[in-house]
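Project standup — Tuesday

K.O.: blocked on the structure for the chain from last sprint. Re-posting the sequence here as requested.
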Amino acid sequence: MNNPRFDVFIEEHDHQRFDNVVKDDTEKYINMTVQGSFSAPDLPFPIFQISQTARRYLLYDIDTVTWLRRTHNILGVFIGSLPQSPQQNVFLGLPLELQPEEATLLVEKGLAFIVDDFQSHKKAIKTPSVELANYKAAARKEGYAAAKAVVKHKQLRTQEALQRLKVRQAVPDTDNTVEKEDYDASIFDTPHESSSDPTSSSLIPYSSTPTTSYPPIPAPSEQASLPLPEVSASSYALFKHLHSCGYFMSPGLRFGCQFSVYPGDPLRFHSHFLAMSHDWDEEIDLLSLIGGGRLGTGVKKGWLIGGAVKNSDDNQKPNPTPEDDQSQDLKKSKGSNVRTFCIEWGGM
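H.V.: unblocked you, prediction finished:
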């Protein structure tokens, strides 16, 4: 007799059924949070590649990050520490690191292009421009204004302290009282301050660090774009297929999969699936299916596997050439005719 606790259920996943469940709720959330409060960046925008070996893809502009999350379901991962809490890694900030599949999708859609971060920044710094000179002049002017405001604030504090001291005096002013007042006033004074209004010539301007590289320096040109990221054909096909169905995807390393799949913004929804990509004719170990199904069910998610269907025309070629293999990989990467299956472990 079969034990129902060890039944494994495998069914082809119907994305439309899950889309209808969260469609209305997601539209209400978007209407409440967006309401035209953001604008699209200048397209195409640059994605910065920071290494030639690891090839990590970063975004530094918060407006671009917000726009991608709200309109294109692109999450990425924040990797920057917060200035006020640098000793923790629970809450992180800019820059945002994109998955290679996310960067490829944005470039393929014509929304972005990839540039070398070091070379583009080095070239922009060495290239003189009127915009950069104007920015430096404006920053120096703001620095003088900030320094002047600090000095004026200190002088006001000194005057208020002297007035409070005079109010507390119950006897007429004497030489000793004047000496005491001068001593108390010296506590609030600084060596470079004077009783007259500070001027720009006697002040050292405060410096400020810009949060973005441009407009201080010109934005990179699309002509210096780099090739597309190197991604697995099966991985990109599954990613693009799920993305086209309206899902959000984040890296699934902590669950032992490629993607954690969310039906809506992760700020409001838990992930529904743990996704793994495979080639159409790839052999999958049965223990991997069982382990994935048990893992997914244990964390109240479904273990989802998928890949691009291999065309029957390709099977008829007895001796495929390298050009045929490259063409087949391109078809897979475009996500055409992708099928997905969801595995759940019964009785847990």
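K.O.: great, moving the ticket to review. The CA atoms of residues 10 and 343 lie 5 Å apart. The chain has a mean pLDDT of 78.
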